[in-house]
């Protein structure tokens, strides 16, 4: 598969190239040149496969020829062998209509593990071929950071610098990052919001003084390999619910538009998805964009679902590219306008294209707490605040009753136990796989919200590229 940039002027790359590149050199994001498509018979034939084997079927068209089928299988088996549930992403039934897809059985208790456990192994494979060294620079609203650090801690050829907004992540999230003591792990608590941190990371990708010396890589969902790995659980769940012979809808708690974009990709590949519900908290830029074409940033309001406290959703650009006729140069122009004005209007083609599959809903703090209580009282399930936002949107849906709606459970409730306790009165216990998290010592550096300070910090500690 060849990959092209959403902004039309960066060189096309193969899978190995996009995995190691992160952002494209023209500031765009890489997308496959075309969507591979499975027939109904091919999808029917995937029923009953173990998760790692299903992952091989779904991802093989994207990784060829960079990886052989045997190599991909080996990486998937090792990545998904670390999950605490044999099904990797088990599906639970709430009631006749609503289902919960549990994506939090990985080592750091959020869905990010599904992709990052694989990505860490992909880095190792590709870097050893080229004898290169990678400097991963990432921004996290909490869960990407811990999942990425777990995936690369102690690996040779990789250093990771992870920026989190100081004081704006939960104690479990922070400790999952800052108690990992490996010489290649560097945690930075930065003044400001997640969007400020993300903007610095993007700037570093475009800073020749850094990119000339270091091979800078991405673990945020701007990295295509992450989205690709997330497509697999849409297939796993829809097939369990009767695909290809039955349509399924999904409600996805959304921040950077990565997880829900993976659902869009699954639909392009032939999975019969009736609708993707984009569920946001009060930081609702995506809800405004999808409901009336207004893509404009506001200030970020901290909520009990911090992984969705985002006002610039990087992956939305991938959707705008695909539904807007794949015109990279026009999109580059539109995005330049957005970067200058912090606002833009979607074109008619973009709005109509998105409306074919997407709808959206916004949940405030009350909606979220009510959804947590409903799950607890009616189904005996304790769910986390992010998942509750998805469930709220699913329950508010006006889809016909015969279409099952799967809410993606993006985090384990123990990861956000204070908010869960406030909502339900139940304080969820930490699963044993996180061990003695609260006894371990933390290590992180505090930096001001200043790009030069961050660049200097990285330059002092990173290993130059080969
Ligand atoms: C990252 C995250 C989200 C948002 O996912 P995106 O891919 O950024 O849309 C939602 N919930 C949890 C728990 C997360 O960690």
Descriptive overview:
With 466 residues, the chain is α/β, with parallel strands linked by helices. It has a domain at 91-110 and 224-424: Rossmann fold, CATH 3.40.50.1100. It is 43% helix and 15% strand. It is built from 19 helices and 15 strands. Strands 3-4-14-9-10-13 form a six-stranded mixed β-sheet, with helices on both faces. Strands 8-5-6-7-15 form a five-stranded parallel β-sheet, with helices on both faces. A two-stranded antiparallel ribbon has the order 1-2. The longest helix has 19 residues, at 112-130. Bound molecules: pyridoxal-5'-phosphate.
CATH architecture of the domain at 91-110 and 224-424: 3-Layer(aba) Sandwich
Total strand segments: 15
Mean pLDDT score: 95
Q: Main β-sheet: number of strands, strand sense, barrel status?
A: 6 strands, mixed
Structural class: alpha/beta
**pLDDT < 50 runs, ≥5 residues:** none
Q: Give the percentage of residues in beta strands.
A: 5-15%
Strand arrangement across the biggest beta sheet: 3-4-14-9-10-13
State the distance separating the first and last CA atoms: 26 Å
Specify the overall morphology: globular
Bound molecules: pyridoxal-5'-phosphate
The total of helices stands at 19
CATH topology of the domain at 91-110 and 224-424: Rossmann fold
Write down the CATH class of the domain at 91-110 and 224-424: Alpha Beta
Helical fraction equals 40-55%
Rg over C-alpha atoms, rounded to the nearest angstrom = 20 Å
